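Internal ticket #5521
Category: modeling
Description: The requester needs a full-assembly model to guide mutagenesis choices. All entity lines are attached below as received. Residue total reported by intake: 739.
Assigned to: D.W.
Attached entities:
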Amino acid sequence: MHSSNKPNRQFTEPPENPSVALLVTCIADLFRPSVAFASLQLLEQAGCEVTVPEQQTCCGQPAYNTGDYRSGRAIARQVIETFADYNFVVAPSGSCAGMMHQHYPALFEDDGEWRGRARDLASRSWEVTSFLTEVMQFKPDLSNASGKYTYHDSCAGLRELGIKEQPRQLLKASRGIDIQELNQTEVCCGFGGTFCAKMPDISEKMVDDKLDNALASGADTLLGGDLGCLLNLAGRAKRRNLDLDVRHVVEVIAGADQHPAIGERET
Amino acid sequence: MKQTSNAFLDTARGNLADQRLREHMNGLGITIPLGRAMAMEELGNFEVLRSHLRDIKDHTLNNLDYYLGRYEENVIQRGGQVHWASDASELNDIVAGICQRIEARQVAKGKSMVTEETALTAHLQALGLEVTETDLGEYIIQLADEPPSHIVGPAFHKTPEQIRELFLEHHQLGERSLETPTEMVQEARDILRDKFLNADVGIIGANALVAEDGRSMLVTNEGNGDLGANLPRVAIVCTTIDKVLPRAEDATALLRLLARSAIALPVSAYTSFYTGPRRDEDLDGPEEFHVVLLDNRRTEILGSKYQDMLRCMRCAACLNHCPVYIGAGGHAYGWVYPGPMGSVLTPLLTSLEESSLLPEACTSCGRCAEVCPAEIPLPDLLRDLRAESVQSGLTPWRWRWAMRLHAWLAKRPGLYHFTTGMAIKLMHRMGRKNGFFSKLPVAPGWSSVRELPAPQGGTFMQQWKARSKSDG
């Protein structure tokens, strides 16, 4: 099953009041609703008519990556139907957006009935920071924000969707925000979906390398665009008692970082 | 070679616990990708060149019978002989037969992953032949009695200090410091020079076979291939059917990417084209020239959904860029080919039963596909192999059932939101004090190395519904 190449979709003018459906993503829904609220807020500020379709659950990636294509297809069909009527589908995750954009068309390659619908959804699917910058040409109001951050480029966003500058561009709207780049920033953090639970020793080595690089960067907070990676990183940082906050980048861009960082207790 | 791929996790754990190996591998995993990136930047048109190479390889594979036929005709015309080996033991028997016919006693062997696949050295040694590996890396691991851990640098896992110890132990040359790599290389060179001069048979591999003129192309960094193919009476090229290319020009298209991908250099130190036995006017060269072409299930891969794998040129860029390989170490893969390309090839050339963990040794990070000069979609092929594991029941039942249960629930949004809403509320209450959970009975692999951050509150969908109601 071959996924296609990186998208090449260019917008010269931002669309006016586009209808946008938020794909909440299952991890944000269950573990980190503030990420979904922050995404909603940013999309509305950017001038989108945002809807949260109630029939959504998960994009089907766990099944697909495990190799259970049948379950993956069943879930994908539901997502394709749920998100059929919007100009854009936006997710606060490169891996879920990449799933719709790259892998749905591959899943239905040989299915005459669903192929067209899968491609149609793929063409409308975006990761939130890339949608805000590339489509909406949005500049957040971050005048009061400050902090010393570093950024982990999650693999799916980086390699399937070409997300690299977009989150940094949004963060740089504030002069008070200092981004210290990670060494080896494009290397996987060891999450890999079920990989981290199937091969914990190798995953541990990878996440430790990433955290060591984050500490060496001198930043107080590690940001990223994918909650899977971030739960892995925050969970390991907690186990090692590291003095490092982990957050989703939209929380900072939306000014919603009053919530405790991932894995931190409520005060 | 005894396959130990199913012990992947145990071997990897041992390698990870070896602090010296871990630091050594980490260093290589950083410096080699940096070098490759610089080499490709200098080249400037990597994407164009690799698409071109992909098209050439696809065309050749789709017409493989034709090009192999042409190659054979041309080798014969130049005075060489072509042998066809359908599996490992046939290749070994053919080579042994040649050695026995000329009453050979010593064999100088160049680097060849194909002969690792067939365990040729052990086969010839069992027949009483003295076989010396003449590639420096292969020579080192022959002394250490270990299999290669990397397809380009077989002794990738050995530190200079370990190599020094091996030489001091195996070379009876008296007191000497042997502290610098230069001294070690000189010592190996002196010893190997004699082996070349005394060998009756030289065995080499091939990086490409040129159909239009019957030449075989080999790149080495030490020139050992040239000595092995020219000094002994008989030269034998051991390679596989997927190495054929239509024209010499196509072999040079491959050359532009091969050394840059493998060792971050524009070219390797030696690039040689072998044309056959010595002709009357030649000053040197072998009396007999043989090519043994191995299939070993490659014709089964041809025409299957894994055919893209046959484009592989064995540059090892995917190994060097794979964080799982760098962590686990090459020996963990338990057969001939490690890393992403090995995790695809091993199940296809042996069996999925004997190697079902290898396709799981992947985070789908995509770095291998990004650097592959043959544009092989390695993460996709690995996922397809996992799909075969699911279908044939090789995936552990709890993962299969977890996925099915999850999918069953995900297809029922009302029930999904109700049950996840209840569960998350409970988890939130239990985890609020700490902010995380240290034990996760449903996924012990997660909690063995990390905490599970506690949910922030109710699910987003619950909160959203409540908010919409109060708004409306």
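Resolution: model delivered.
Comment from assignee: Chain A touches chain B through 75 residues (CB under 8 Å).
Ticket closed.
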